[in-house]
Amino acid sequence: MIKSKQFIFGAAAAALLSATPAFAQGSLEGLLAEVQAARASEQQTFQQRAAEFNGAPADQQAKMLSEAQSRREGLAAESDKLSAQFSANELVINEADKKLRDKAASLGLQEVFGLARQVAGDSATILQQSLISTQFRAAEGESNRDAFLRDFAAAQRAPTHGDLEKVWLELYGEMTQSGAVAKYTTKVVQPGGEPKDAEVIRIGPFTAMSEGKYLNYLPELKAFSVYPRQPPAEFMATGAAFSAATSGYPEAVVDGSRGVLMSLYVERPTWLYRIEHGEKVNYVILLVGLISALCFLFQLAFLIVTRMRVGAQLKDLGKPSENNPLGRVLLAFTGDAKNIEQDADVAELRIAEAVFREVPKLERYQAMLRLAVAAGPLLGLIGTVLGMIMTFQSITESGSSDPKLMAEGIGAAMIATVLGIGIAIPLLFANALLTSLSKGITQVIEEQSAGMLAESIERTRRG
Predict the structure, then answer these.
(1) pLDDT tens-digit profile of 86-105?
(2) Which helix (H) or strand (E) holds 42?
């Protein structure tokens, strides 16, 4: 009776275990149906075997019971034998492991293995950030270089000869390729986001170019991407010449920080970007500078032509011409030679009037330049104040003094100051140049007119 209950309980447990997948896949009703069906099947099997056992003769029942007990005793003996063998094997394994540890300690292998794991862990990060990984990709089913080194560094078991050799090969390959220039085909992510197979020129682990454009390495994707904004023209010209070179030692752009400096250089805002993202006062400063520069160029050309004409007039004072200031002054000094001594004061005033008439043309736009020189720094100061207002406003809105939030306002403040001083200094020298030229021409006119008056008076007295 006890054996029958144990059999029924075992059948129910087997039915429950066999119904577990159904429970995972179906509902509770499905589980109940499966359990009931399994129980009914086991019950039927039990009744069938019980009927066969009860229907058999007494001697056959004793024989069947004896066979079952013999089989049970045989299985128990086999189990005891396997258990004893398992215990003996454990003792052998522990003894062998102890001998291995003692041997490793005597040979110093633990320190060697620890050093190898440390080197592998330190080198894994370097290989992950190295753009050389785009050229030497892992075969299908194998781990990448950096993943293998991380697994090796984290492993608890003693490394094999093959593992140590592979670590050495990876490190040696990285060192060798760090001093090589290679050309190969790999995937390059375009500015639009689409990947494309392109030919890449790699300069060690420092710089990579494709189709004349500089590339950025993405360690997460193990791929290159084209910088959305390329470096200045001189960098692009150097890169194009290096890509077209087939021999010799051409110049190249090498980023010793492995892409960090290039990224910062590319992301650096241009002057046009700074001006556009600044305040409106930047445009006012540029407008004042442009107008003053045009006035300077026009007056400079006028003074140069005038100085050339005055120089030509000095060679022929007897034939004054109206195309230069000196000639017009000479023409203004015309009078009766007989009465020149009595009318000397009138003649002097007439000459002075003619000189004064020419001076405004010679000193034209100088006041405008002096005004621009004084107004440029003041306009830059206004831009600086507006930029600081933007900075304080960003601090107030965010509630923190994050440098990234303050950078835009400070940049706007500084660019306005630079623009104001930038137009003031060149215009200061331009105004000094115009002043020097105009004073030189005016001095020549005054000297010649005074000398002409004195000569005329002296000639009249002698006559």
Answers:
(1) 999 999 998 888 887 777 66
(2) helix 28-55
Sign of the dihedral defined by the CA atoms of residues 134, 139, 145, 151, in that order = positive
Mean pLDDT per segment of 10 residues, for the chain of length 463 residues? 40 44 58 86 84 72 78 87 90 86 63 81 86 82 83 82 86 88 89 85 89 87 85 85 84 82 76 73 89 93 90 81 82 53 64 82 90 90 82 73 68 82 93 92 83 71 66
- Contact of 278 with 415, CB cutoff 8 Å: yes
3-state secondary structure 391-412: HHHHHHHHCCCCHHHHHHHHHH
Give the β-pairing of 223-226 and 181-189: parallel
Amino acid, res. 83: S
Please give the DSSP secondary-structure letter assigned to residue 5. Answer: H
Amino acid at 71: R
pLDDT per position as a tens digit, 329-364: 877 765 444 444 446 666 677 777 778 888 888 888
Gap between the Cα atoms of 343 and 336, Å rounded: 9
Assign 96 to helix, strand or coil: helix
- Both tokens of residue 190? 């375009």
Say how many residues make up the chain.
463
Residue 197 is inside which H or E element, if any?
strand 195-203
Cα-flanking dihedrals φ and ψ of residue 195, to 5°?
-75, 150
**Alpha-carbon separation of residue 138 from 178, 222, 375 (angstroms):** 19, 11, 65
Of the candidates 223, 220, 216, the one whose C-alpha atom is nearest the C-alpha of residue 263 is 216
Could you give the residue ranges of the DSSP H alpha helices within 108-226? 109-129, 145-154, 161-178
DSSP code, position 194: -
Distance CA 324, CA 333 (A): 15
CA distance 243 to 336: 83
**Cα gap 299→432, rounded to integer Å:** 13
Torsion, CA 136, CA 139, CA 143, CA 149, rounded to 10? -40
Q: Which helix (H) or strand (E) holds 84?
A: helix 58-107
Q: Is the pTM of this model over 0.85?
A: no
- Tokens representing 83 are 């258990």
- Judge whether 288 and 269 are in contact, CB under 8 Å: no
Please state, in angstroms and rounded to a whole number, the distance separating the CA atoms of residues 17 and 44. Answer: 19
User: Which of 278, 283, 289 shows the shortest CA–CA distance to 384?
Assistant: 278
Contact between residue 236 and residue 147 where contact means Cβ atoms under 8 Å apart: no
Scan for tokens 């794991």, then name that residue: 117
As beta bridge partners, residue 224 has: 188, 217
